[in-house]
Amino acid sequence: MSTTKPPQKPKTLLNTITQVVQTLHAKVNFSRLILKPNAKVPELLVHQADIDKPEVYPLLGDRYVVGRSSRTCDIVVRNPLVSQIHVSVIRDAKGTKLLPSRPGFMIQDEDSTNGLYLGRRRVKMLPLRHGDSLTLGPPELASVARIEYNDPPPWYIQTIRYGFYGFCGVSAAVGMVVLFEWQKFQVDPLPETVTGPVIVHAADGRPLREANTIAHLETDRLADFGSYLPKAVVASEDSRFYWHLGVDPVGTLRALLTNVRGGEIREGGSTLSQQLARSLYRDYVGTEDSAGRKFREAVVALKLEAVYGKNKLLKTYLNRVYLGINLYGFEDAAKFYFNKSAKDLTLSEAATLVGILPAPNSFNPIQNYQLAVQYRDRVISRMLEKGMVTEEEADRARRSRIEINPKAQEFLESTIAPYFYDYIFVELEELLGVQLAREGNFIVETALDPPIQTIAEASLKRSIQTTGAANNFSQGGLVTLDSNTGEILAMAGGLDYKESQFNRVTQAQRQPGSTFKLLTYLAALAQGIPPGQTYSCEPLTWKGQSYQGCERSGGNVDMYRGLALSENVIALRIGQEVGLDRVIDMAKRLGIQSKLDPVPGLVLGQSEVKLLELTGAYSTVANEGLYHSPHAIKRILDSSDCTDINDINTCRVIYAYDRENPTFPSVLSPSVAETMTTLLQGVIRRGTGQSAYIGLGEAGKTGTTNDNVDLWFIGYLPDSKLTTGVWLGNDDNSPTNGSSGNAAQLWRDYMGQIAR
């Protein structure tokens, strides 16, 4: 095949300029050239067999002709297999589907000889999409002449697109896993299991609270719970219950974000269906606090929702949820607390029962009336927000007093060591997590010694009613630890649990006064400073604070005398020598978790601490430097997983202190602990703690704050391995007329009775 080339015009400057202008007019619509800086325009890439790199043509105009003719085509492909006019590329004014305002292009075959192909399909007209690669001829000619359309979408469109693809892929994978997991359990019929109580045993195996004898009753219809209870539960526990499918993405995300920020969760992440899944399918879901457990819980919830209606699941929840003591379901709770059926409950009573759900052993109106009222009102407010009750109904309910069944009050007031019993559930939540701790079916073993507990309560009460009445203090706290193990043997958190449930051992933050000097002296001994080293009794100025000199000594005083007589300036000079950071580090090593400010006043007990944690620090010294965290719980057993229900030793152990702590850190060398014991024994033999003298080698330290607001004594018996902390004072921080000698005297009277 031969062709004759047309005659060419002479290459003059005028001809060249004319040809460039004509080409630009053909390719560019100048009305569209007003582009934003860095604006991207669609491109056409032309691949030819004899050219290594593709030629790139920005598509700024409205129409382009592609072919072999250099006279009539805007984009020339010099290959004999390409027609003179092969295809045209035309702007589509409608734009793309994703971005209607963004112009797109169409490609159209202009009756070419060899055609236009997308893969193996011949096309006449085609809307171009980013990445389209078309052959100017059959697929076999792809290496000869091929065009490619390049118009990538904005980054946010690509993000949305690939995010959607990823979401669909993950959803499909999760769906397959869920379907596979569904084969592992059956939901029709529902298991008969109900969540059981938490039974707390003392060291001798005696339960601290007897089991309730009310028979478990279940209602057949949701209407049997009255008009308020179902609404109160939905409003409080799962406000989106009627629209989610078992897992609430909004609630889950909110709980996750709140946990990350460390704030208070108003609504938990678990739906009613998930809570029901945990209690009914415990064997499958498990009891560990893990992501796997949460996933299995969600799987069960989804299947429950797929098989049963919302009202059926809500009725089952109301019939079986654990409400403390030995109560399963709201019918049992209504009979126990109000001596009436659930259907007869008033709005105030219904909201009260729903309000105790988060912690039924602590929030009930018998043990903590004010807290029960607070949670009741919160439930009523939620119901009002959701339009479930009228404002008149809500106001009337909030103005109502909670009248409790007298028999229920008698039953709960029979609890042994009520402050200790409440603390069990605080520790239970720390060990198992809040949600799992709420489920019940636990047997909790403790080291509480009932005879010692009785003596502790009586001793504290006697001291407050006699010495306290004469010296203007009305409250106190007392706790005894086994120095060898850190186990709590006795705990009296206040004068009268019925009058105040606030625990002065575990909840009160008080300034410890000179009892905190223990940590400063230990830091010095650990640094190798000998106890015989002397320090000046002269006044001291440290970090802008001025402190007076010794009150009971003069000249230079060693550690023995300085601690025995509780000379503040000696402790300050020791703290200055070792450094406040080392004092704080020593406190943290011995279990002080309260915030400690690195200021000179720290040495003198300026920073507030809890009685339990400071008593634990003294217990570590008594244990020759081996640290045990003060704890109430020895073991937690799953009472729903026992080989023999009559033998708790056949139950599965969920937690054991010894198992979780196989080794115990030595935070002090034995020699430092021994020297510290000698120093503390001097406090009692010839110092400020003489009121605590028993004659059994006791060691301890007094502590008093300004205006005698806080009166402390913490000490131990090295041979008996008993450590006891005492605090006396007033809840409102008002001054007293007492002294640390009052606390030391209470310690002596009490420890003298329990010494082994």
Automatic annotation (TrEMBL):
<keyword id="KW-0378">Hydrolase</keyword>
<dbReference type="InterPro" id="IPR001264">
    <property type="entry name" value="Glyco_trans_51"/>
</dbReference>
<dbReference type="GO" id="GO:0009252">
    <property type="term" value="P:peptidoglycan biosynthetic process"/>
</dbReference>
<dbReference type="InterPro" id="IPR000253">
    <property type="entry name" value="FHA_dom"/>
</dbReference>
<keyword id="KW-0511">Multifunctional enzyme</keyword>
<dbReference type="InterPro" id="IPR023346">
    <property type="entry name" value="Lysozyme-like_dom_sf"/>
</dbReference>
<dbReference type="Pfam" id="PF00498">
    <property type="entry name" value="FHA"/>
</dbReference>
<feature type="domain" description="FHA">
    <location>
        <begin position="64"/>
        <end position="123"/>
    </location>
</feature>
<dbReference type="Pfam" id="PF00912">
    <property type="entry name" value="Transgly"/>
</dbReference>
<dbReference type="InterPro" id="IPR008984">
    <property type="entry name" value="SMAD_FHA_dom_sf"/>
</dbReference>
<protein>
    <submittedName>
        <fullName>Glycosyl transferase/Transpeptidase with FHA domain modulation</fullName>
    </submittedName>
</protein>
<dbReference type="InterPro" id="IPR050396">
    <property type="entry name" value="Glycosyltr_51/Transpeptidase"/>
</dbReference>
<dbReference type="Pfam" id="PF00905">
    <property type="entry name" value="Transpeptidase"/>
</dbReference>
<dbReference type="InterPro" id="IPR001460">
    <property type="entry name" value="PCN-bd_Tpept"/>
</dbReference>
<dbReference type="GO" id="GO:0006508">
    <property type="term" value="P:proteolysis"/>
</dbReference>
<keyword id="KW-0645">Protease</keyword>
<dbReference type="GO" id="GO:0009002">
    <property type="term" value="F:serine-type D-Ala-D-Ala carboxypeptidase activity"/>
</dbReference>
<dbReference type="GO" id="GO:0008955">
    <property type="term" value="F:peptidoglycan glycosyltransferase activity"/>
</dbReference>
<dbReference type="InterPro" id="IPR012338">
    <property type="entry name" value="Beta-lactam/transpept-like"/>
</dbReference>
<keyword id="KW-0808">Transferase</keyword>
<dbReference type="GO" id="GO:0008658">
    <property type="term" value="F:penicillin binding"/>
</dbReference>
<dbReference type="InterPro" id="IPR036950">
    <property type="entry name" value="PBP_transglycosylase"/>
</dbReference>
<dbReference type="GO" id="GO:0030288">
    <property type="term" value="C:outer membrane-bounded periplasmic space"/>
</dbReference>
<keyword id="KW-0121">Carboxypeptidase</keyword>
<keyword id="KW-0328">Glycosyltransferase</keyword>
